[in-house]
Amino acid sequence: MEFKKHVVKKGEFLSKIAKQYGYKGSSDWKKIYDHPKNAPLRKKRPNPDAIEPKDVIFIPAKPAKEIDDELAQLNGMLTQLKAMPPALKKIMMESKRMAKEAARITKSGELIKQDIAMLRGMQAVHRAEITRIDVMAKASQKGGKKGAGSSAQAFEKFKQRQEQLAKLGWNDFDAWWLACGTGTTLAGLALAEQGKRVVYGALAVPDDHGVAPNIESILAHATEPAADYQLIDASRGGFAKVDQALLTFIDQTEQTSGIPLEPLYTGKALLALKQHVESGEFAVGTRLVFAHTGGLQGRRGFAAM
Predict the structure, then answer these.
(1) Per-position b or e across 185-204, b if 16+ CB within 10 A of its CB
(2) Closest by alpha carbon to 234, among 202, 208, 281, 212?
(3) Could you give the C-alpha distances from 68 to 30, 95, 119, 243, 261, in angstroms and in order?
(4) Nearest in space to 190 (alpha carbons), one of 219, 212, 161, 232
(5) What are the tens digits of pLDDT across the range 110-131?
(6) Are residues 125 and 163 in the same domain?
(7) Residue 27 has what DSSP assignment?
(8) 298 and 158, same domain (yes or no)
(9) Residues 37 and 75 both lie in one domain
(10) Domain count, the chain
(11) If you average pLDDT over residues 69-81, what whole number do you get?
């Protein structure tokens, strides 16, 4: 069995230390304290509530049960969705790769509290994405006047947004900018615009994930004209790939504007927009509307960072 050596710091106690290493049960600290490896500690500190700074505790490696349960659920969903449209399969495979990596580091005892929180947040987003994809895949088989599946829902939502913007006197803008994961929301917006404004999709996945073919497939079923659209790679190296520059941007944006973002979709999309504006991609005076597409469940795990 592998062990982690933990040196007690001021203000720490056994249950708090146990949670740092994935022991979530209220009495799990006893498994650490009573382990034979910690016999010297028990001899030195017969009262488990009396540990002191600089005491050494050996933490036996233990997979975090909560993460294991989530991995099992995620893998179950992945198995059920083998019939997913080809354009969306890469998201599924990325999620499965992440699940395997989580299982590997939990078994080796390398998982720490921050990693658990991050994985939990990422898996919440992946489960929501896979569920949405399943619904979209079933609906898209039926086609539809205004696009298939969730693109039809997006059509209706953006029609409502256009009416709201007009009431605010904001109907003279030039283009839309939004995060793009599978392309269904962008397709719905392109149809709602009916050729009036350009729609920019900031890709949360690399451009080889089949987003463009998926959009074209949806638009091909429509009977109404669609707006021009452009796809921009905002994935920063891959789906769910996060870096410190992105996290810093999200934090600064929320502090200055109060608008919550998450690092998988909306955070990447808004950062890409900022970079395009700063690089002079848009003429002075161009007005764009940034569509916040939600996905805030992905914030849970990253709050710990």
Answers:
(1) bbbbbbbbbeeebbbbbbbb
(2) 202
(3) 21, 15, 11, 25, 28
(4) 219
(5) 544 445 555 555 555 555 555 5
(6) no
(7) T
(8) yes
(9) no
(10) 3
(11) 59
Please name the residue ranges forming H helices in 141-265. 150-167, 184-193, 211-220, 244-257
Of how many residues is the chain composed? 305
Measured at the alpha carbon of residue 281, what is the angle toward residues 278 and 286, in degrees to the nearest 5?
90
CATH code assigned at 53: 3.10.350
Q: Tell me, what's the pLDDT at 138?
A: 47
**301, β-bridge pairs:** none
Residue 204: CB partners within 8 Å, gap ≥ 6?
A: 179, 180, 181, 234, 235, 239, 264, 265, 268, 269
Residues 147-167 have a mean pLDDT of 62
At 52, list the tokens: 């002191």
pTM over cut 0.70: no
Q: At residue 36, what is the residue type?
A: P
Same domain, 28 and 47: yes
- Tell me the per-residue pLDDT of 139-148, one tens digit each, with 9 for 90 and over: 444 444 333 4
Alpha-carbon distance of 120 to 71, in angstroms, equals 10
pLDDT at 31: 87
Give the largest CA-CA distance in the chain. 79
- CB 200, CB 232: distance < 8 Å: yes
> What's the CA gap between 262 and 257, in Å, rounded?
14
Same domain, 121 and 203: no
Tell me the backbone φ, ψ of residue 54, rounded to 5 degrees: 80, -5
Pick from 155, 141, 156: which is nearest to 221 by CA? Answer: 141
Q: Say what the pLDDT of residue 156 is.
A: 64
